[in-house]
Every structure is written in structure tokens, then in C-alpha cells.
């Protein structure tokens, strides 16, 4: 049974990557997302961060996230060729408010994965284990500041993950996160 699940997760990730390369989206764009991606001027999220899990959803404006307990992490950014310090809210803290288990148990919890999208349509996939401190040593953070300053061109929110060799799954101008279940 376990290999079948792994194949499902890899198939979903593969389809997501193919759709990103072809310019199509696996999800309908929300008004906060712009459908075109311009490399010289990335789209900036204009609304709050929207997180959905099943029938539950929440919108998080920057001032609401800023009022929550903050965590600071330092991660090496291969693109900037420098270590950077980010402050924000652990993604797991936001997910538990929507009913995602803080301590996943058994197969059904570990079938959850999330798709995070930037305002420019850039999207990445994480398994629930990768964003849960009870399972994984790395931190996935919804950052509000970089090196003590606002994110600037990276928008009001940036998804940052520690413990990765390069920032390929960091999402600038984070606009939406959908928690889904692998079949």
C-alpha cells in the first residue's frame, strides 16, 4: 500500500510541475493572483493570504499575522549567495487553526499535502510531514520580514523553508495555500 501512495504523491507533483511549465494552472486563479508571470516585475499579492483545508478557509492580512507569535530563522539563499534572516509565523501554526493535525498519525494524516501559490502563479508542493515540526526538523515559515525589514518586492508574505539546499520551493508574494488529500 505504501508504494502506491508514494506513486500518487510523485504523480501529483509531476502533474503540478508540468502544468507550471506549460503555463496552465491546476487551480482556478483567485482575484488575488495574476495569471501572467513577468520575471522582471513579479506580481505582488494584493489581498490577504488565503488558506483552505476541505470546507475550512481563512484569510490572513499582514497585520493579523504580525499579531501572532513570531519565529525567526536563518537560511542560506543560493540566489542571493548569502544567509538571510526571516521572521514570521510557522505555517504549521496556521494550518492547525483550520483543523490540520498538529501531530499527524497514521496513513490518513500523511496523505495530506499542500500547494502554495504566489501571486504570479508560481506554485510548489509540500507533504504535510515537511511542514509539521512533530515530524520534520526544518521550518516552513510564512515570513513577514527579511533581515528585520519588510519583504519589499517579495510581497507582504514569502514562504521560506529551512534545511533545503536551494530556495526552489520558497514562494515570493505568497497568495494562497490549499491543503489537499492524495488519493
Q: What gyration radius follows from the Cα positions, in whole Å?
A: 16 Å
The tally of structural domains comes to 1
Oligomer: single chain
CATH topology: Sulfite Oxidase, Chain A, domain 2
What is the share of helical residues?
10-25%
CATH superfamily membership: Oxidoreductase, molybdopterin-binding domain
CATH class: Alpha Beta
Total of DSSP H or I helical runs spanning 4+ residues: 4
In the CATH hierarchy, the architecture is Alpha-Beta Complex
Task: Tell me the β content.
Answer: 25-35%
Structural class, judged by helices and strands?
A: alpha+beta
Quick one: overall form?
globular
Describe the fold and architecture.
The protein has 183 residues and is of the alpha+beta class. It has one domain (2-21, 55-181): Alpha-Beta Complex (Sulfite Oxidase, Chain A, domain 2), CATH 3.90.420. The protein is built from four helices and ten strands. It has helices at residues 2-22, 62-66, 91-96, 106-110; strands spanning 49-53, 56-60, 71-77, 82-90, 112-118, 123-127, 140-146, 149-150, 158-161, 174-181. It has a five-stranded mixed β-sheet with strand order 2-1-10-5-6. Strands 3, 4, 7, 8 and 9 form a five-stranded antiparallel β-sheet that branches. A hairpin with a 4-residue loop joins strand 5 (112-118) and strand 6. The protein is globular and about 40 Å long. The chain starts with a helix and ends with a strand.
Amino acid at each position: 500500500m505504501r508504494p502506491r501512495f508514494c506513486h500518487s504523491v510523485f504523480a501529483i507533483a509531476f502533474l503540478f510541475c508540468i502544468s507550471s511549465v506549460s503555463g496552465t494552472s491546476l487551480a482556478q486563479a483567485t482575484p488575488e493572483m495574476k495569471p501572467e508571470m513577468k520575471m522582471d516585475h513579479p506580481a505582488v499579492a494584493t489581498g490577504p493570504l488565503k488558506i483552505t483545508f476541505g470546507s475550512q478557509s481563512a484569510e490572513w492580512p499582514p497585520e493579523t499575522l504580525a499579531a501572532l507569535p513570531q519565529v525567526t530563522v536563518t537560511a542560506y539563499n543560493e540566489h542571493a549567495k548569502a544567509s538571510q534572516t526571516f521572521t514570521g509565523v510557522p505555517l504549521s501554526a496556521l494550518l492547525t487553526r483550520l483543523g490540520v493535525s498538529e501531530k499527524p498519525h497514521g496513513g490518513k494524516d500523511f496523505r495530506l499535502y499542500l500547494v502554495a501559490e504566489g501571486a504570479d502563479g508560481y506554485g510548489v508542493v509540500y507533504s504535510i510531514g515537511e511542514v509539521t515540526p512533530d515530524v520534520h526538523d526544518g521550518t516552513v515559515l510564512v515570513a513577514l520580514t527579511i533581515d528585520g525589514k519588510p519583504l519589499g518586492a517579495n510581497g507582504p508574505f514569502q514562504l521560506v523553508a529551512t534545511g533545503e539546499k536551494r530556495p526552489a520551493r520558497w514562494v515570493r508574494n505568497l497568495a494562497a495555500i490549499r491543503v489537499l488529500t492524495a488519493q
